[in-house]
Automatic annotation (TrEMBL):
The gene is yobW. The lineage of its organism: Bacteria, Bacillati, Bacillota, Bacilli, Bacillales. Coiled coil: none annotated. It comes from the Bacteria. Keywords: Membrane, Transmembrane, Transmembrane helix. This is Mother cell-specific membrane sporulation protein.
């Protein structure tokens, strides 16, 4: 029992740290580090594709995933137009749209909180019930997860496209050769 509590605390601390870093990246001037952004694009793209492929097996999940990706693309495009660049001491910095970045972050946080609450309720009820009411509960659980996947894909689509936009804008501003994004 004590080991279970330690695991929950460690996971909680990691989640809080990730949220802190995400919020910090949405406020003020950020150093533009191309390699880091390319790594993030790759990671977000792979994880997002895994979510999408997993959700593509269910019609409700597929719809929510496509809607989430479209919303993420729209937010990234709009945020990319609002991003400002500045060169200091030979290095480029960018200032993201705090409002849009915070919105995407709070969607992510809301999804985590909702998922924890859902797991808590499931644990309180003793898990899935057999019979007709269990089928309804299983269906509600699956629908809740499918829309949650769509919310997560908003974040993945947003950051993949936003970082691509930032990198393209930076390379055009700095006069460097286009990197082919």
């Amino acid at each position: 029992m004590n080991q279970h509590l330690d695991t929950v605390i460690i996971i909680g601390v990691l989640i809080v740290f990730m949220i802190y870093r995400r919020i910090r990246r949405n406020i003020g001037w950020q150093p533009l580090k191309s390699r880091k952004m390319m790594t993030r694009i790759t990671i977000f793209l792979i994880i997002g594709l895994l979510f999408f492929v997993t959700g593509a097996m269910h019609p409700i999940s597929l719809i929510s995933d496509v809607v989430g990706i479209l919303i993420g693309i729209i937010l990234a495009y709009y945020s990319g137009t609002m991003t400002q660049f500045e060169q200091r001491e030979g290095h480029w910095y960018y200032r993201p749209s705090t409002m849009i970045g915070s919105f995407v972050t709070f969607l992510f946080i809301g999804r985590i909180i909702y998922r924890i609450y859902q797991m808590y309720l499931l644990g309180q009820s003793g898990g899935f019930q057999a019979g007709q009411s269990g089928d309804v509960q299983n269906m509600n659980y699956a629908i809740g997860n499918s829309w949650g996947s769509g919310l997560i894909l908003i974040m993945f689509a947003y950051y993949v496209l936003y970082y691509i936009i930032i990198l393209r804008k930076n390379y055009h501003k700095s006069g460097k050769k286009d990197i082919g994004l």
